[in-house]
Amino acid sequence: MILPLTLSALLTLGACTTQPESEPTPEPIEHPQPEFSTRDSNLFANPSFEDDTESPWFNYAERTPNWAPFAITEPGHRSDHSALLDLDSDDPDQPTARIIHGVIQECPAPTFPRYISGTYHIDQWERGTTNQYLQLVVIVWNARTKPKGFNLPNYQIAVPLAGIANPPFSMLNRKFVMGAPQEPTTDEWIEFEYDLEQLFNDQWGLTPTNYDYLRVFFEVRYDGRTEDEPRALAHVRFDDLYLGPESRATPETNDESPDPTD
Asked: Model-level pTM?
């Protein structure tokens, strides 16, 4: 199954359901990339999680209680491995109100990459709260060229891939791009691709330039869950991730894109 991708059909909604969230202060790159192959335009190192000698992927599990570790396991999409994000509210080590499972990579990108794409597979999904969802986030760090009237040190977009119909919270420096299915598809690899240049122009009014690096997240999470709600469970895999100038969309992807006039 291919996730519909027509960007003009996506809606940015301004609703706010929880208190504003913030990101840490910009800082030097913590996890410098290994040199990636010049045979490929992909800015992600180890994008299919096959090389265990590279360690460009990380998350915040060791620095904040709202984050949990990830694992590199079998199976993968086209090869042997993928990143497994294993969310379970019954785990005593996971907080009640908010938990985030994800992988992060920091990419020096002097030329802003046009496309971001990849695949995900939901092995298991039990909704325990309204704001339980998958998403990708792209943060422009230490931006010196900023959107008009904007003075914070970074700005970002978040694209929910499945699980929610409205933005889960409000952030001054984050724009949510809505339009993905509210109920996820399970037991099937789902492809996605977005035109980052168009998204940033639509949401912030510019193509990012003059910044230190991009910090990119792929997550499954919940926000605002209470103790009396049902168990929240999500076993999600990400694989074959791409950040670069080329579209990786297949003809089938384009054929299945929705008509914005419908």
From this structure: 0.84
Question: Cα(8)–Cα(49) distance, rounded to whole angstroms?
Answer: 32
pLDDT given at position 80: 87
For 113, the token pair is 């990459």
As to burial, measured by CB atoms within 10 angstroms (0-12 exposed, 13-18 middle, 19+ buried), residue 142 is middle
Contact 100, 21 (CB under 8 A): no
pLDDT in tens, 75-103: 989 888 999 999 999 998 887 899 999 99
Q: Do the beta carbons of residue 117 and residue 193 sit within 8 Å?
A: yes
Token match 């109920």: residue? 183
Residue count of the chain, please give it.
Answer: 262
Residues 6+ positions from 206 with CB-CB distance below 8 Å:
145, 147, 200
Give the span between the Cα atoms of 113 and 244, in whole angstroms.
5
Instruction: Please state, in angstroms and rounded to a whole number, the distance separating the CA atoms of residues 154 and 165.
Output: 25
- Tell me the CB-side half-sphere exposure of residue 261, using CA atoms within 13 A: 0
Question: What CATH number is given for 7-255 in this structure?
Answer: 2.60.120.260
3-state helix, strand, coil in the chain (%, to 5): 5, 35, 60
Q: Among positive and negative, which fits the CA dihedral 53, 66, 185, 113?
A: negative
Q: What percent of the chain has pLDDT over 70?
A: 79
* Residues 3, 117: Cα–Cα separation, whole Å: 11
Question: What distance in Å separates the CA atoms of residue 20 and residue 258, rounded to the nearest whole number?
Answer: 32
